Amino acid sequence: MDISLESISELRRSFEDKLNEQNEVFHPMDLAKINNSDSWLKRFLIHTEGNQEEALSMLWNVCEWRKSFGVNEISESNGTVRIDYLEEGIMFPHGVDKDGKLMFIIRCKLHFKASKDSEECKKCAVYWFERMERLTNGDQITIFFDMMGSGLSNLDMEFTNYLINLLKMYYPAFLNYIIIFEMPWVLNAAFKIIKTWLPAKAVKKIKFLSKHNLNEFVSKESIMVSWGGEDNYKFNFEPENKKVEETKKKV
């Protein structure tokens, strides 16, 4: 969808007018993005199909949520996110889909709802979303549900709904595909319910795939050995701050 610079400027002006009227205080980092990032504002207009009123409402709600949830403070270096959860590798970014978009892999068989603090799991998801935003400069991602070996005990409808709401309400135009890989038949009914949580345009992005047709939507180089490919990647959590320091040393 083509969004003009004038439309972006209009959204920025509308936000500033509302901010002055209501005298609200938002996080300085979010205000800086609104002032300086045309690409971020453009995503709100894409998400709302160019509707200025809806884009403004969404932008305002996003700023409120980011402030109340403490999104800008979530980091592995300050104790705001469970490092042990991150290290388990239940969810992590790796590889790209057929469009070159980063994949966010969720290994469902490793997740047991009863053994996890749901609020901490939500923080981990937001941590990764924010990290991927920085890594890709706001480019789209593909959510990859690796359901090999999973069953009813791994099903967490609350967390799945939370992920969907992040994409619907707080991370505009961030989703490329949702890939459901090797889904057990016992979870068919659950995913029929999950589909109802998505808007029609997002339902079209859901792809139910198996080893036989995974290469239709995932880059050949990113198909891991366990999925029938040749990528022998093994997850090992690396703090973002460490990666930044390593990059600085190379420069």
UniProtKB/TrEMBL annotation:
Q: Which InterPro entries match?
A: CRAL-TRIO_dom, CRAL-TRIO_dom_sf, CRAL/TRIO_N_dom_sf, ER-organelle_contact
Superkingdom as given in the UniProt entry: Eukaryota
Q: Which residues form a coiled coil?
A: none
Could you state one GO cellular component term attached to this entry?
endoplasmic reticulum-endosome membrane contact site
List residues of the CRAL-TRIO domain: 79-235
Q: What is this protein called?
A: CRAL-TRIO domain-containing protein
